[in-house]
Amino acid sequence: MADPRIPGPLPPLTAPEEPGVPDQPTPAAERLQAGLERLARGDGPTTVPPGADAGPAAGPSRDPAERGEPALPAASADAAALLALARRMSEVLPAEAPPAFRARLQAELQTAFAAQAGATRGRARPAWSRRLLPWLVAACVALALALGGTLRVSADSLPGDRLYGVKRAAERLRLAVTIGAASRAALALQLAELRAREIGALAEAERPVDPALLAAVVAAYDEAARATGASGDAALAAVLGASAERAAQDLTSLAERADPELRRDLRAASERIEASGSGVDEGAAAPSAVAASPVPEASPSPPGVEPADAAAGAPAGGTAQGPAERPAAGTPPPEPSGTARLRPLDARQTAIATRVQPLATRQAGVATQRAGSATRQAGAATQRAGSATRQAGAATRQAGVATRRAATQAPVTSPREDTPAPPPTSEVERVNPEATRRAQMLTQERPARQTEAAARRTEAAERRATPRPPDPTEAPARPQRTPAPSDPNPRATEPPPPTEPSPPPLGQPTPPPPDPLRPVAPSPEPRP
Amino acid sequence: MTRDPSQVTGASAPGEEEALVARARGGDAAAFGLLYQRYVDRVYSYVRFRVRDPALTEDLTQEVFIQVMRGLATLEWRGSLAPWMLRIARNTVVDHWRRSARRPERTLTAVEAGEMDEDDNRMDRLLAQEEPGLEQADLWLDRARIEAASRHLTDLQQQVLALRFAADLSVRETAEAMGRSEGAVKNLQHHAVRSLREQLGLGPGAGDAGHG
Question: Does the global pTM surpass 0.90?
Answer without folding.
Answer: no
